[in-house]
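Workshop exercise sheet. Pairs work together: one partner reads the sequence aloud, the other fills in the structure field after running the prediction. Swap roles for the next sheet.
Pair: D.N. / O.F.
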Amino acid sequence: MGTTYDTSDLTCKTRLILSNLETLRHDHHLLLSSTIDDDKRQCLQQSLESVDLGIDEGLVMLQLGHHFDDLDSETHKLMLQVQRLTQENNWLRDELSVTEKHLQTSTQ
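Structure field:
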């Protein structure tokens, strides 16, 4: 079964995860500055690169979320405009029909 998520919920969770990753990143930097063992430093550095990648991916997800929200808003505005133009078009057709009838009766 597919699971659907609320966009604002995903954004909130992504921000929380980013905050946790930033804390983890800070902790890694502290450990790197105090560790002398080269093997541990290499392991920490690899882990730090993964954390940085996670942060970058989280930021991209937030930007995509904002972009999708903007697209949804624009789509909604355009749909309202289509409805308004359809109503206006129908009104103009009615007016044209009435005018044509008046013209026919006046020419007879």
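Discussion prompt: Residues 7-107 form one domain. What would you look at next?
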